[in-house]
Automatic annotation (TrEMBL):
Organism listed in the record: Leekyejoonella antrihumi
SMART domains listed in its UniProt record: DEXDc, HELICc2
Catalyzed chemical reaction(s): ATP + H2O = ADP + phosphate + H(+)
Family under the similarity heading: Belongs to the helicase family. DinG subfamily.
Full protein name: ATP-dependent helicase DinG
Keyword Hydrolase: yes
Length: 757
């Protein structure tokens, strides 16, 4: 007899020591109903709802009753870790008595995250010449050699081959020596396929109740039909507001001169690459002549370069083709993968597909980059993700302008032929109108192109002084954040420290901000979404201007123009929707638990005066709105005077992201986070670990390119020193450490190292 949902939810909540919340119960029933009806569901669940419990319990119920696993896809590593390491173990233990068995779960990741057994025994060429031999012959020659030796020793011990189980970790350069990408893999023709860690992990995932993965992996599985995930009829997408961007990124292709050089090098003696090399130089010359920005069609000279490159790649492909599958070894497969990528990407750009957008960008490490991406992924998602399964999408931010229509449109759910779906806002347990004020500085001039005005700087100073620090400043550009930080440092002196994104690793800055009430932190987009600092350390969030996409953003401008041609409002559908999503995420940094109080200050008068202001306002949490400056200053002063002490911040205990069957505890792994002890996790609805709860910044890419997410360790510093001793350039070290050149340069300077550019 099927278990009752309410009984399961009650058991789960009681088992973890949590508290049932109306929104959580409502969401759990909505998920169950959607599965029964075969209708897709969009659920907006505010911070504190306990949404992970609200979808995991119905997912487990469905899996146990049908014998088919449920798939949960997240955007960030942080949430993936929370679900697998904290939420699911506790829920599984709590549901065992009710279900009669312990629910099982697993984590499925990309091939690059696992050791390759064939590569370990020499089945592939070294990614870096001589590095493996250094590990073999002289482990004392440097950190890299020691890492490779350690990886080989660990390979004899590990049961999973999962990189995240290796504690402490190793550098990206060392890991490349023992792993391969999906297109480099020999697949079922590999002589060691029976020992393959990836194949074993995916086989094990077919027998669990809940499989956790990420947006990109889920998308590749759906689009390419690789069947890396087990067959399922329920897909739950958390952090769903990120899905379109993640999917777009997954199917964005690049071409650079460096990619061509790498392909030529990998071919070695396997094929004649003289022509391919010459075409690479020709392509580089033509690409270097193009201005940064969108290409309205492929120019004739670029089309000529791409055609020659494609044809040269085709010739090399023919030479690389093995006489038989048995002749395809690791070296040949790596060469084929590199050349195939050149051919496919050149061919795609030349095709000038109707929905593709092509542009040129400049990358600090790669130089000129030719990129192509889909203008819209709506129909692709409709056909490949929302077909033949029930999809539940949830986030704290899905309802924009008071409806789900904007998000649903980008997902392909609206319009002729769209599948059945419904939207549900279960609210938040927080009392937003009494906990927070949304203040629009109506008296300030509208932001211009000449930087932050003096009046706005004066407003920032006044608000921060009255708040006694305690401020997270969210800016629309790196330049604006740095300018404001420099100005405030002059005005405040030593009284109120002002940190700025780029001064150090973001996680380090967030820890410092969360530890000291007087400290302020200014930054750009990655702070708008990833920071979770509950308590009195953050009582004021400043937003300098409405975060519209840049006017020269290739995809945003293409989408706006396409919608306008069809008679729609391109600005509202693209720019205003983008801004509403970011504003909601940014404003959401303020209230992270039921005891938080504070003010979100919008320093852009268009938030109340523009024709689209109502749409933006309806997208925000329901804070108490005002333009009364005097009232806001009084509120900030009172909050400062009555604020509880900031809880000291410590580094968290190590944790694992291992693939699990649900039968054993996770092994630890290091992940930099900010931790603050509290009694309960407001977001998940679960009690905190015995170790402190995390107030974290989720790993991710900063669109500005100015800040990486690396939390520098002693091993990283040693690697920088080793590189300097070996005479490596700054660019080479940045590429090796997988960080921006500016980030590597800043760290090298702090260590007193001199590196050539």
């Amino acid at each position: 007899m099927p278990a009752d949902l309410d009984a399961l939810l009650h058991a789960a909540v009681q088992g973890v020591g949590g508290v049932e919340r109306p929104g959580q119960v409502q969401m759990a029933h909505a998920v169950t109903d959607s599965v029964a009806e075969g209708s897709h569901l969009l659920v907006q669940a505010g911070t504190g709802t306990g949404k992970s419990l609200a979808y995991l319990v119905p997912a487990i119920k469905h899996a146990v009753e049908t014998g088919r696993p449920a798939i949960v896809a997240t955007a960030t590593l942080a949430l993936q870790a929370q679900i697998v390491d904290r939420d699911l173990p506790r829920i599984a233990d709590a549901l065992r008595p009710v279900l009669g068995r312990r629910p099982t779960y697993g984590l499925v990741k990309g091939r690059r995250n696992y050791l390759c057994q064939h590569k370990l025994v020499g089945g592939y060429p070294d990614e870096d010449e001589g590095l493996i031999s250094v590990g073999d012959v002289d482990a004392g020659a440097g950190r890299l050699g020691q890492e490779v030796t350690r990886l080989r020793e660990w390979a004899d011990e590990t049961d999973s081959g999962d990189r995240d189980e290796l504690v402490p970790g190793v550098s990206e350069r060392a890991w490349r020596q023992v792993s391969v990408s999906a297109d480099q893999c020999l697949g079922q023709k590999c002589p060691m396929v029976q020992e393959c860690f990836v194949e074993r992990a995916r086989a094990a995932a077919k027998d669990v109740d809940v499989v956790v993965t990420n947006h990109s992996f889920m998308a590749i599985d759906a689009f390419e039909g690789r069947q890396m995930l087990p067959e399922h009829d329920l897909l739950i997408i958390d952090e769903a507001h990120e899905l379109v961007d993640r999917v777009t990124s997954t199917i964005t292709d690049d071409l650079t001169a460096g990619m061509i050089s790498t392909a030529v090098k990998r071919c070695g003696r396997l094929a004649d690459t003289a022509t391919l090399g010459e075409m690479g130089e020709f392509f580089d010359q033509i690409l270097g002549q193009l201005a940064e920005g969108r290409l309205m069609g492929v120019p004739d000279n670029l089309a000529l370069a791409l055609t020659r490159l494609r044809d040269a790649a085709r010739e090399v492909q023919s030479e690389l083709k093995p006489a038989s599958p048995a002749d395809n070894d690791g070296s040949r497969q790596m060469a084929r993968a590199a050349v195939d990528e050149l051919f496919d990407n050149a061919e795609r750009i030349l095709e000038e597909r109707e929905l593709d957008v092509t542009w040129v960008s400049q990358d600090p490490r790669r130089g000129s980059v030719l990129r192509v991406a889909p203008m819209s992924v709506a129909m692709l998602l409709r056909d490949k993700v929302f077909d033949d399964r029930t999809v539940v999408m949830t986030s704290a931010t899905l309802e924009l302008g008071g409806t789900f229509d904007a998000i649903a449109g980008t997902l392909g759910l609206r319009g002729e032929g769209g599948p059945p779906w419904s939207g549900l806002d279960v609210g938040s347990p927080f009392d937003y109108p009494t906990q927070a004020i949304a203040y629009v500085a109506q008296h300030l001039p509208a932001p211009g192109r000449d930087g932050t005005s003096t009046a706005t700087m004066d407003e920032i100073e006044t608000l921060i002084r009255v708040a006694g620090g305690r401020t997270l400043g969210l800016f629309s550009s790196t330049r604006a954040a740095k300018a404001a930080a420099e100005e405030m440092r002059i005005r405040f002196g030593d009284d109120i420290p002002v940190l700025c994104q780029g001064d150090d690793q973001t996680s380090t800055l967030v820890r410092a901000f969360a530890s000291d009430a007087t400290t302020c932190l200014f930054g750009t987009m990655s702070l708008w979404q990833g920071v979770d600092v509950p308590g009195s350390a953050c009582q004021l969030v400043l937003i300098d201007r409405i975060p519209f996409p840049r006017p020269d953003d290739p995809l945003a401008s293409a989408r706006s123009q396409a919608i306008a041609k069809m008679g729609g409002n391109g600005f509202m559908a693209v720019s205003a929707t983008h801004a509403a999503l970011r504003l909601s995420q940014g404003a959401g940094r303020l209230i992270r638990r039921s005891s938080d109080r504070g003010v979100v200050a919008f320093l852009d008068s268009r938030m109340i005066s523009a024709r689209y202001a109502g749409f933006l306002q309806r997208s925000l949490p329901p804070f108490w709105p005002t333009t009364d400056r005097g009232l806001v200053l009084q509120a900030l002063k009172r909050l400062h005077e009555t604020a509880d002490p900031v809880v000291p911040v410590e580094r968290p205990a190590e944790r694992s992201l291992a693939v699990m069957s649900g039968q054993k505890e996770a092994a630890p792994t290091a992940e930099p986070t900010v931790t603050m002890p509290v009694t309960e996790s407001e977001d998940s609805g679960l009690p905190a670990d015995p170790s402190p709860q995390e107030a974290r910044i989720a790993p991710g890419h900063d669109p500005s390119g100015s800040v990486g997410e690396r939390d520098w360790t002693a091993e990283d510093d040693e690697e920088l020193r080793d590189g300097a001793d070996l005479g490596l350039t700054l660019e080479e070290l940045a590429d090796h450490l997988d960080v921006a050149v500016s980030e590597a340069a800043a760290r090298a300077t702090s260590l007193g190292l001199s590196l050539e550019s």
